[in-house]
Amino acid sequence: MAAWGPAAAAPLLRGIRWLPLHCVHRMFASQTEGELKVTQILKEKFPRATAIKVTDISGGCGAMYEIQIESEDFKEKRTVQQHQMVNQALKEEIKGMHGLRIFTSVPKH
Questions:
Q1: Which of 98, 94, 97, 95 lies closest to 86 in space, CA to CA?
Q2: How far is 13 from 17, CA to CA, in rounded Å?
Q3: 65 φ, ψ (degrees, to nearest 5)
Q4: Please, which residues have CB within 8 angstroms of residue 13's CB and are 6 or more apart in sequence?
Q5: Looking at residue 59, what is its pLDDT?
């Protein structure tokens, strides 16, 4: 069976003229480079994290991300402190972003 990707989808999407090419690629890509980079940084900064999910919510251009992270590091910290920890971990990356949504939690045992 042939690989399915943007090239294979082109004939199917040819009639949809308003769909930018980067959006077509995004439909088939598992994670963008930016998502992978932010995920890797968070894994390094929060080694006890049990779940990390980074989603580029700007359509793939890397301007805005949604981050969901679950870690014991957040235990007994207020939400604002948890978010400050994530902001500090991504201090350099945030400089190039338009926005960031952060959702933090502590694992339930």
A1: 94
A2: 8
A3: -125, 155
A4: 19, 24
A5: 84
Structure tokens at 33: 């480079």
Q: 23 phi and psi, to 5 degrees?
A: -75, -35
pLDDT for 14: 54
Q: What is the DSSP annotation of 6-71?
A: HHHHHHHHTT-TTS-HHHHHHHH-SS-HHHHHHHHHHHHH-TTEEEEEEEE-SSSSSSEEEEEEEE
**What pLDDT, in 10s, does the model give residues 18-65?**
444 445 444 555 788 999 999 999 999 999 999 999 999 998 888 999
Q: What is the pLDDT of residue 31?
A: 81
Residue 7 — very low, low, confident or very high, per pLDDT cuts 50/70/90? low
DSSP 74: G
- Partnered with residue 67 across adjacent β-strands are 54, 102
